[in-house]
Amino acid sequence: MLIKQKNVLFDMDGTLIDSRKTIEEAWLKAAQSVRVTIYAQDIEEHIHGRSGQYTLDHFFGHFSDNEKQAIKAKVDAYEETANTPLIEGAIEFLDKLKENDVNIGLVTGSWPARIEHVFELHNLWPYFNAVISRHDVKEGKPNPEGFKKCASLLGTSTDNCLIFEDSFSGFLAAEACGAPCVSVGDHNVSVTPNVVQNITDYFSIEFKF
């Protein structure tokens, strides 16, 4: 794969960190605590790649606002303290990007305290030129707002970016802003026409600049 773009945008969960299991467990445990059933077939569509508010409203819409916030606090507490590993080869790939003067941005539906936890845990701050969290956008993925804001912080537009994502909503957001996308993971997720390659980890990507 020839990487022509000098700007690369990453999602975080499932793309940089192997957090799919952590996220699923957090929501399933929170749901179990209030006797709500989340079915396996709903996880991909309504949890992965979605904003926390979307997932909260979808599964717990019949609860009061205070009850929903208490549920979300349980999810956040679980995720903020999990020692989630990086996807294999991520650091080596980030090193290669930096060696080739590529600007790197993060666009995630996660929140600042959790981003801080993950970045400190894996020493990721030196790699990133821009970070967009869910607090920086009005609408999460599949809306392309986050990618567009991050590209702007990098001094470019999304059509000059390559995006790494793991969820269908992320692929849709990348497609909506005209950017090619690399799908990360070996899970069964539908892809959009702008997905140019699928990788299981960053050791499996063959690339040149």
UniProtKB/TrEMBL annotation:
<dbReference type="InterPro" id="IPR006439">
    <property type="entry name" value="HAD-SF_hydro_IA"/>
</dbReference>
<dbReference type="InterPro" id="IPR041492">
    <property type="entry name" value="HAD_2"/>
</dbReference>
<dbReference type="Pfam" id="PF13419">
    <property type="entry name" value="HAD_2"/>
</dbReference>
<protein>
    <submittedName>
        <fullName>Haloacid dehalogenase superfamily, subfamily IA, variant 3 with third motif having DD or ED</fullName>
    </submittedName>
</protein>
<dbReference type="InterPro" id="IPR023198">
    <property type="entry name" value="PGP-like_dom2"/>
</dbReference>
<dbReference type="InterPro" id="IPR036412">
    <property type="entry name" value="HAD-like_sf"/>
</dbReference>
<dbReference type="GO" id="GO:0050308">
    <property type="term" value="F:sugar-phosphatase activity"/>
</dbReference>
<dbReference type="InterPro" id="IPR051806">
    <property type="entry name" value="HAD-like_SPP"/>
</dbReference>
<dbReference type="InterPro" id="IPR023214">
    <property type="entry name" value="HAD_sf"/>
</dbReference>
